[in-house]
Amino acid sequence: KMLKPFVRKSESESVEMADSSGDKAAPRLATAAAALSAGSSEGTIPMDQYLELFRGLSVFLRSLGSAMVFVVKDLESKIEVLAKLVEAAPDTHGNLFAAVKHEVDTDPTLRERKKDPPSASRTILRLHRTLEFITLLISDLLDAAPDKSGHSIVSDAYGKTLSNHHAWLVRKAASASFYALPNRAGLVDAISADVMGTESEGSKKGKKDTIEVSPELKAAVTTVLDTLRNTHAAVEKLYTDNKLHELP
Question: What pTM, to 2 d.p., does this model score?
Fold first, then answer.
């Protein structure tokens, strides 16, 4: 089933917590990033908040439509695997660092190619690679020239990140699917909705091909990007220190 762009239709796709005045909290991605930033410290990344961040990122990718279906399906399957591991062993897998250390210390087959039982370390590595792609995509979306196409922004980000871990056939299929992406204004609308809960000002004015990112949106997205980058850097160091980047 193809994914439809720009749809927000359930509580699973937005944060519905209300304060005493009845106002809704920020959209899911912004809320998840803030919670993860507040809960993380050196050597600690709470797994529940880490997973919620990826659920928010999945909502963002879904809003881009069918072009991202191959990333979304893989991302959501990894979220499900990791969530089940955390639920089954909260004492050892409630913290990302502790989960990886536990598997490194106790699983002599960790570095072998196998499917079962699932490994938190291998699953986190796949999420980590996807995080690199999404972070670069959002960053380039903010900084790209106003007339750069959505297709070019996503293709460039993919070529520098996830494509390095995909087989040739997957890369070719991805390249073709990116032509179904919305234009740059559509991408800006998507991130604006997921971070600020609003349509972009440029899009409201009808600037569909050459859109400027407003200072307010840029500031809000930069805050989210800081969390994405800090999370990626922490996991990158963890996997480098433990020589886990080449896990099968």
Answer: 0.84
